[in-house]
Amino acid sequence: MTAAADELLATCWTTAGDAASDRPDLRSPLPLRERIEAASAAGFRGFGLLSDDLPAAVAAYGLSGIRAMLADNGMVHLELEGIPYWWDDGAHRQASDRVRHNLLEAAESLGARHIKVTPDGDSGPWDRGLWAARFAELATQAQAVGARLGIEFFPWSNIRSLHDGLQLVEDADHDAGGVIIDAWHIFRAHTPPSDLATVPLRRIIGVELNDAAEQVIGTLFEDTVHRRRYCGEGTFELTAMIAALRTAGWNGPWGVEILSDEHRSLPVAEAVAQAAASSLSVLDSGT
User: Fold this and answer.
1) To which H or E segment does residue 179 belong?
2) Hey, which residues does 117 pair with through a beta bridge?
3) Mean pLDDT across the stretch 225-240?
4) How far apart are CA 100 and CA 138, in angstroms?
5) Which residues contact 244 (CB under 8 A, 6 or more apart)?
6) Which of the listed residues 195, 217, 231, 262 has the most CB atoms within 10 Å of its CB?
């Protein structure tokens, strides 16, 4: 059986319907209420919301309405995601700061568990000291509104691996900062699952489960956006990953992040139910 404390969190893309992170417009076409209700019916107790979807959700329901919807549907964990160019001082800064302000305001009002940010997917030249300082600054701001801050490493980015992510977090040296550990990025970066057993628990902000075929098709970015599979339907050593994370002390919530052409083509209730059931199955085998 799964551990008694195991709870699932549907990350933003899992409930987004026909939306993808390689499109100019990242917004979900689905009403937030439909997404939350589908996740709740599937057994999720956590929900993820992308910053691009936040303005329409606030306009439709207000922050108090969103908070009530989450509570009414049994959601006890909230992940907010996406502050573009959070490290930048350049031309992107004004827009980035606007998103930051809105996300921090929402985190405080909605009681967000954590905020997730990503690295530079273009993998351009970067100043490690500056990034550590900016991460610490943002972690301070997240902590001030009752949340923590996690960075998700990408194999095609400037922060490519678990070890790169942990190095940034240690350089930043902030109690509220840590990493988001996504199965896809672990296995595509060829990180041994056993390495996860030694990650300090205080540095694990979130975990994301998914699966994939052994062979990468297209670029790593194309593969992660279009061809993820439900847990147990690919070749990832998910039971080893889960066992290692349990050794490190992680007991959830377990994020589920499914991005694929197949998943986004299904009715959201059906897609989310499949995501939940498959994830619980591997958690059961990884106990």
Assistant:
1) strand 177-182
2) 151
3) 97
4) 9
5) 193, 194, 195, 196, 197
6) 231
3-state secondary structure of 237: coil
Q: Which helix (H) or strand (E) holds 279?
A: helix 268-285
pLDDT tens column, 121-180:
998 899 999 999 999 999 999 999 999 999 999 999 999 999 999 999 999 999 999 999
Among residues 17, 99, 10, the alpha carbon closest in space to that of 47 is found at: 10
Out of 3.20.20.150, 1.10.357.10, 3.40.50.1820, 3.30.420.40, the CATH code matching 8-285 is 3.20.20.150
Secondary structure class of 219 (helix, strand, coil): coil
The pLDDT, as a whole number, for residue 234 is: 97
Burial of 189 (C-beta count, 10 Å sphere; 0-12/13-18/19+): middle
Angle among Cα 257, 261, 267 to the nearest 5 degrees reads 80
Domain residue spans in the chain?
Answer: 8-285
CA distance 46 to 48: 7
Euclidean distance between the first and the last CA atom of the chain, given in angstroms as a whole number = 7
Q: Decide if 27 contacts 52 (C-beta within 8 A).
A: yes
pLDDT at residue 237 tops 60: yes
pLDDT value of position 208? 98
Token pair belonging to 27: 């917004």
DSSP 8-state assignment for residue 227: B
Q: What is the mean pLDDT of the chain?
A: 96
